[in-house]
Amino acid sequence: MVERPNRPSALSAPPATGPGPQVDIVGSGPSSKVVATLPSGESVEVLLYGATVTSWKSNGGQTENLWLSEKAALDGTKAVRGGIPVVFPVFGPPPKSGHPTSSLPQHGFARTSRWEFLGKSASEDALGSNSVKLDFGLETSGVSDEARKAWPLDFALQYSVTLTKDSLQTVVNVRNEGEQSFEFQFLLHTYLRVNDISKVTINGLLGVEYIDKVLNATTHQQADMSLKITGETDRVYKSIPQDTTSVLEDGKPLFDVVRDNLQDTVVWNPWVEKAAAMGDFAPNDGFKNMVCVEVGTVDGWQKLDKGEVFEGGQIIKSLL
Ligand SMILES: O=P(O)(O)OC[C@H]1O[C@@H](O)[C@H](O)[C@@H](O)[C@@H]1O
């Protein structure tokens, strides 16, 4: 073999590519869901009804990070009690009258509409770690006649759910497809699973102003570094400067919830009486195993003119 002095050195071999993520559509009709599993075992399940994430497992598939009620309706008859329902175009009860959302039900129609699965894209980083992104779409033509009549505006939502080994990213893209401008609110109603609510602390809200819905919607300021849940809690933290809200249990970090272009966060736990009053909340003492940390834009309204787009979302890191 002729030796060439300037022979290029051998290119390093590309990393061996193992099997990629598995994505399946399971079930049929209103119960259809998309299930994605990484080769390392982590998984996510997204019901087409509401594009509701109903399960997210990390640690090779051994740790469920989301709380889902044992009585959650998963057949498209009712918004899912648990997981990550998508709230759009209004948060909470709509303004009583005089606003375009006034005739809509609490939390709008996105969580009770059937979304379309737009497809998956998988990727692998330099270290061979996989991720998978699932895209879902909902537009004006996909909502019920009732919802369209109540909010007759042309919109398109794209919702992307990306699973990595230790995180779940959920991002929405809202587009005004019509001639008229519109206003909306958006929120990701995430039910995080915890072992014992009495040991949970929530950090990252110090100094932030909040509306306390349990105290007649009065305004307060978070004075303690750590928020503890010791009773019914329903607070809207507004315009939070720091982008991460951390959930700890027994002093150990459980989750970091990182907001992207969403300024507000609702912290909700129904506690004993409210939990018992909800027909789809089970078991009754399930409130001990969950806390909702709901990122969103719900203080005031986002306005989109014709053709404009808004994008916002979260990354939840499982730190267990
Ligand atoms: O029962 P729903 O409509 O799912 O709402 C649950 C809770 O959702 C929270 O986001 C609200 O702040 C609470 O006031 C509300 O009770």
From TrEMBL:
Region (Disordered): 1-22
Residues holding substrate: R81, Q106, R111
Keywords, alphabetical: Isomerase
GO function terms (MF aspect): carbohydrate binding; glucose-6-phosphate 1-epimerase activity
InterPro entries in UniProt: Aldose_1/G6P_1-epimerase, G6P_1-epimerase, Gal_mutarotase_sf_dom, GH-type_carb-bd
E.C. no: 5.1.3.15
Domain of life: Eukaryota
Gene Ontology BP term (one): carbohydrate metabolic process
Catalytic activity: alpha-D-glucose 6-phosphate = beta-D-glucose 6-phosphate
A UniProt-annotated Pfam family: Aldose_epim
Catalytic residues (positions): H189, E294
GO terms under cellular component: cytoplasm
Gene3D superfamilies, per database record: 2.70.98.10
Family to which the UniProt record says this protein belongs: Belongs to the glucose-6-phosphate 1-epimerase family.
Role noted for this protein: Catalyzes the interconversion between the alpha and beta anomers from at least three hexose 6-phosphate sugars (Glc6P, Gal6P, and Man6P).
Name of the protein described by the UniProt record: Glucose-6-phosphate 1-epimerase
